Amino acid sequence: MAGDRDEVAPAGLTARPTGHRSDGFGEQRVVEDQSASAGGRAEVKDLDEAWTRVLAGLPPNQRAWLTNSRPVTLHESTAIVAVPDDFTRGQLETRLRPDLERILSESFGRDIRIAVTVDPSLDPELREPAPQQPVQEPVRQSMPLHQPPQYQQHQSGQLQPSQQQQPAYGQPSPQRHDQYQQPAPTPQQPEQRSQHAQPSQPLQTEGSYQPTIQSALSAPDAIGQHNHPLHQQVQQPLGSVAPPPNGSAPSQTATEAHGEARLNPKYTFETFVIGSSNRFAHAAAVAVAEAPGKAYNPQLIYGDSGLGKTHLLHAIGHYVRSLYTGARVRYVSSEEFTNDFINAIRDDKASQFQRRYRDVDVLLIDDIQFLEGKIQTQEEFFHTFNTLHNANKQIVISSDRAPKRLEALEDRLRNRFEWGLITDIQPPDLETRIAILRKKAATERLTAPPEVLEFIASKVQTNIRELEGALIRVTAFASLNRQPVDLSLAEIVLKDLIPEGSKPEVTASMIMGQTASYFGLSIDDLCGSSRSRVLVTARQIAMYLCRELTDLSLPKIGQQFGGRDHTTVMHAERKIRQLMSERRSVFNQVTELTNRIKHQAKQQ
Ligand SMILES: Nc1ncnc2c1ncn2[C@@H]1O[C@H](COP(=O)(O)OP(=O)(O)OP(=O)(O)O)[C@@H](O)[C@H]1O
C-alpha cells in the first residue's frame, strides 16, 4: 500500500502506477480503507462530487483536458488526480492548476492542492508503438561483419513443402489464406478479375515449367480478359537459373514464418489491377512467386512513387506462402535493413542479423535507393545478396530508379541487379486508373458511381496513392454530410485537393509546421513522446498528410517524427482515413490543413 502511495507525486513530479487500473480508482479504495476511522470515506466521496463541480466550472477548452482524467483520492489537503499521459499532466500542473485548486478549495471549504499521477490505461484508444531512436550509419566498425554464415546446413534446400501433409515439390499447398485477414471477397468486374494462377490449380512441376516474359507480353490488355500468361512453354528464359539441389524443408513453422514475413494482407495479386503500365512487372512477379529462385533472380521492379512496387513485393510474398507451406519470406524496406544492421552492430548481434536476412527463401527488399551512399550497409547487403543467390533463394528488389541511375550505389551491386530481370512500372493510363478505383471502392466497401470514379481518375494522373486518397476524401465527405456521392460533390472536394496548374512541391517540414501551428503546438510536440489525445490526433494527421502529399516512404516519415517506426505511420494513415469519415472535425481539420499546406507550397 505504501508502494501505491509512493507512486503519487506532488505536482511537478510524475508517478506511474505500476498496476493496471482501468477505472483509475484503484488507489481510491486503498486510501479509503486506511482512513476509514478518520472519516476519510466521506471525503473520498466528496472528491467525486467536487470533481463534478470542477468539470462544470471549467470552460470547455480546459475541460477537454480532463476528458480522460480521474480523481483518485483525497489525502489530507492533497487531491490526487490521474491523467493518461505526461502531456496532459503538464497541462494540469501549469495551465489548469489555479482553476482546479480554486474550485476544489471552494468545494471542500479549505485549501486543496492537486497532485497529478500518470496512468496510461486511462487512454485506451492510444496504441501507438513507442518511438524508436533514429539511427545513423556508423562510420567504421571493427567487428567482423562478413563471416561465413553459421547456418550452412539450412541453405542447401530450395523451397520445399514441409513434411506429411504437403504435396510434392512444385505442387501448390492447399489454400492457406486463412492465415491472413484477406480483404472480404467482393463482386468484381470482369476486367478486375485476378489474373494469376489460383493456388488450387497444380503448378507445373519442376523441369516442365518455365516462365516466359514473351507469353506475359502477348497477353491481352489488362483491362480485358486474358489467360494466365505464365503456364506456357518457355521461349526465351531470362536469368540464369540453376536447378535447385535437394534439401530438407525449412525447420521454421508456418506461423513463425508468417510472423516474420510482415506482409500487408491487402497487397495481394487479387487486389492488383493490371494495365499496360505494369503488366510486364506483374507477370514477372507472378513467375517469381510460382518458381522462387528459379525464374528470374533477382527481380528488380522500379518506378516512381505510389505506382505499386510495394504492393507487388507483398503480393509475391503472399503468393509464395500460399503455394509453399513453410516458405520463409521476409519483406523489409532498405531503411529498416539499414537500421537493423546498425542496431545489430551496436548490440553485438551480427550473427542474428545475418540469420534474419540470409536464412530465408524469399527476400523482398523495398526502396533500394535508400542504400545509396551507405557504404557499410551496401557491403552487408552485397554479402546477403551473394549468400541468398548462391543458395538459389529468391531476391526481389524495388527501386525508384533504374539500376543504372542509382549512381551512389556500388558498381558490383548494380551489376548484380542486372543478373536477373529488370521491370519498370509506369504511371497508369486512364482505364487502369478507373479500374483501380473500382477495385478499391469494392474492397473498401465505398460506394461511388462510375462517373465519379472517372472524374477522380481524370483528375489524379500519376500517383495511385493520391488516387486512392482522393476517393477516400470524396466518400468521407459524402458520408459526413449524409449526401450521395455524385459529381458535384466530387468536384467540390477535389477542387482544393488538386489545384489547377503545376503541382507545387510539398515537404514534410511544411506539413509539420502548418499542423503544429494549426493545433497550437510546437514541432517538438509533434516529434515528442506525449500521447495526449490532442497531440496524437495532430501527429497522426500530419503523418497522414505526409503520406498523401509527399513521396516520402513510411520509414522516412517515421524518422521526421522523432524517429518513429514505420508501423506507427501506417497506423496513423489508417486511423485518419477512418476518422475522416466518422468525425466531421477531423475531416475539416485535414481539409483546412491541406489548403494551408498547398497554399504555402505554391508561394515557395
Ligand atoms: N495496379 C494496382 N492495382 C491496385 N492498387 C494499386 C496498384 N498500384 C498501386 N496500387 C495501390 O497504390 C498504393 C501505393 O502503392 P505502393 O505503396 O505499392 O507504391 P510504391 O510504388 O511502392 O510507392 P513508394 O515508392 O512511394 O513506396 C497502394 O495502396 C497500392 O495498393
TrEMBL record:
What family is reported?
Belongs to the DnaA family.
Question: Could you tell me which residues belong to the region Domain IV, binds dsDNA?
Answer: 479-604
**Name of the protein in its database record:** Chromosomal replication initiator protein DnaA
Which GO CC terms are listed, alphabetically?
cytoplasm; plasma membrane
Q: How does it assemble?
A: Oligomerizes as a right-handed, spiral filament on DNA at oriC.
List keywords of the entry alphabetically: ATP-binding, Cytoplasm, DNA replication, DNA-binding, Lipid-binding, Nucleotide-binding
Q: Where in the cell is it found?
A: Cytoplasm
| Its job | Plays an essential role in the initiation and regulation of chromosomal replication. ATP-DnaA binds to the origin of replication (oriC) to initiate formation of the DNA replication initiation complex once per cell cycle. Binds the DnaA box (a 9 base pair repeat at the origin) and separates the double-stranded (ds)DNA. Forms a right-handed helical filament on oriC DNA; dsDNA binds to the exterior of the filament while single-stranded (ss)DNA is stabiized in the filament's interior.
The signal peptide, as residue positions, is none
Gene giving rise to this polypeptide = dnaA
Q: Where is the composition biased (Basic and acidic residues)?
A: 20-32
Ranges of residues in domain AAA+ ATPase: 295-423
Cytoplasm among the record's keywords?
yes
Domain observations: Domain I is involved in oligomerization and binding regulators, domain II is flexibile and of varying length in different bacteria, domain III forms the AAA+ region, while domain IV binds dsDNA.
User: Which stretches make up the Chromosomal replication initiator DnaA C-terminal domain?
Assistant: 507-576
Q: Which GO terms describe its molecular function?
A: ATP binding; DNA replication origin binding; lipid binding
- Spans of biased composition, class Polar residues? 195-209
Q: Where are the residues of the annotated region Disordered? A: 1-43, 122-209, 236-258
